[in-house]
Amino acid sequence: MPRYFISIGSNIAPYDNVPKILQALLEIASPLQVSRIIENAPVGMKSTNMFLNLTLALDSPLEATEIKDRFNAIEVQLGRDKTDPNRKKKDRPADIDIMYWVDEDVQVIPTELLPEESYNRPSLLELLDYMGLSAKATLPLLPTGAEIEINGQKIGTQPSTLNKA
User: Is 112 exposed, middle or buried (0-12, 13-18, 19+ CB in 10 A)?
Assistant: First the structure.
């Protein structure tokens, strides 16, 4: 079964929208292995709204195209206009992307699959370590995570596992 590694970002009401994103993702797959949640300044766009960013892993028998279709539906449900040609340069309530996927039995993640983005790579490396997976990359020192609550569980300050309620 494929194991998908996902990036999530929100800079419109992120403390409200990130829990909603995670709740919707739990309807697709459970459990979710979730990274620390990091507050970041926007990259590649002009905005004063800070992002909450995290990475996660989910196992699903669904094809990547179906997973992405479901992610797009979550983004639209939370208010993102996917028809706007400038949407990549605008504030967003939800941004959910597949970074890559591997077979669930893979224990070593190839370096070329690791993202370069400063808002994804550190939390992904920490998540891989939490999952007992290895990658030939140095685990950086991470900032204090942002805490949110979902299903009565506080997450965000360190990697954790979320299960459907």
Answer: exposed
Please answer whether residues 15 and 52 qualify as being in contact, where contact means their C-beta atoms are separated by less than 8 angstroms.
Answer: yes
Where b means 16+ CB within 10 Å and e means fewer, 98-111 reads bbbbbeeeeeebee
The CATH superfamily of 2-162 is 7,8-Dihydro-6-hydroxymethylpterin-pyrophosphokinase HPPK (3.30.70.560)
pTM score over 0.85: yes
All residues at 6 or more sequence positions from 130 whose CB lies less than 8 Å from its CB, including other chains: 33, 35, 158, 159
Token pair listed for 104: 């669930």
Give residue-wise pLDDT tens across range 72-126: 999 999 998 877 777 777 889 999 999 999 999 999 999 889 988 888 999 999 9
Cα–Cα distance between 54 and 48 in angstroms, integer?
A: 19
